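Tokens as discussed.
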């Protein structure tokens, strides 16, 4: 019998998008999360770039219909704090074996950032099969992902960094790409203006693109 994948990975493979959110006010986390869910997205990554990030994760994780992750995780202490806040997955900008081990100890899937064949091979040798290709646009875009996927045929990729709605088809048509991450789904301007309906519309548009590329999801 085939082993069931982690729910986070399954959801990424279904939604094909991972909204990356930066909040300056903890009280924005719940409405942003609700807006993304209304846009038919079941995941959200809150980056640890502001002092309220852990509080935002806790507020968003109160929803049982959303899988909330911590992004821009830079050290083991942040892994532990993210887990305590209710994060269901860990995303880091680079590859750090200590972060990988800490996430595994916490029982959380971890997706480290890579941009070279050397880093991908290191991640693979750590037992990982999903990595974040970052920063995607400046590291070569979809063409680079295709080339790397050809060499590492058992690896999957989550391109992130400089990706917008118009870029989705190029990435999502690559079989090795599980999903794309991006901040265009919940931009800082819309969050600051409490324009949560616009965030829902951005998310619905991205999901429609994903369906057109992948089929019914």
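Sequence:
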């Amino acid at each position: 019998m085939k082993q069931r994948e982690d729910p986070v990975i399954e959801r990424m493979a279904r939604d094909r998008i991972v909204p990356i959110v930066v909040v300056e006010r903890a009280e924005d986390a719940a409405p942003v999360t609700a807006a993304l869910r209304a846009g038919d997205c079941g995941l959200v990554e809150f980056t640890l770039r502001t002092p309220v990030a852990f509080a935002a994760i806790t507020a968003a994780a109160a929803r049982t219909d959303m899988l909330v992750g911590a992004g821009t995780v830079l050290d083991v202490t942040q892994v532990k704090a993210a887990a305590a806040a209710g994060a269901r997955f860990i995303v880091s900008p680079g590859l750090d074996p200590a972060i990988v081990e800490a996430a595994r100890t916490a029982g959380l899937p971890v997706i480290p950032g890579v941009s070279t064949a050397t880093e991908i091979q290191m991640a693979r040798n750590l037992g990982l099969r999903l990595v974040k290709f970052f920063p995607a646009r400046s590291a070569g875009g979809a063409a680079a992902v295709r080339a790397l996927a050809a060499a590492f045929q058992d690896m999957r990729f989550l391109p992130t960094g400089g990706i917008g709605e118009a870029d989705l088809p190029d990435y999502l048509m690559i079989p090795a790409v599980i999903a794309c991450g991006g901040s265009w789904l919940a931009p800082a301007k819309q969050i600051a203006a409490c324009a949560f309906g616009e965030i829902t519309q951005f998310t619905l548009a991205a999901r429609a693109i994903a369906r057109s590329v992948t089929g019914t999801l």
